[in-house]
Amino acid sequence: MLLSADHAIPLGLLINELVTNAVKYAYPEDSGEIEVSARDGHLHVEISDHGAGLPEGFDIERPRASLGFKVVTGMVRQLQGHLTIANDRKGTHFLLDLPILSEKNES
Known about the structure:
Layout: H1 5-25, E1 34-39, E2 43-49, H2 67-78, E3 82-86, E4 93-98, H3 103-106
Antiparallel strand pairs: 1-2, 2-4, 3-4
């Protein structure tokens, strides 16, 4: 998948922040899997774990969300994407939907 630097850099930072949070908080007593997957075209990125999950009532859109999540939501907006938190299983499951253009398509 070819991405322009304007998309690749914030996407890398965004994925790094979400994976770092999973490493720090998903398995406080143990270790476990953290999954990152992507599909081409209109880029769909999933970052998930089977750990402790987000705190009850956590909302990344609330002003009291952590600095890390403020950065995440800012980068999602910059990339004109959409971030969803799925609550369909144990752990945390972030779904990113991003319109990504390659450098060839941007010129």
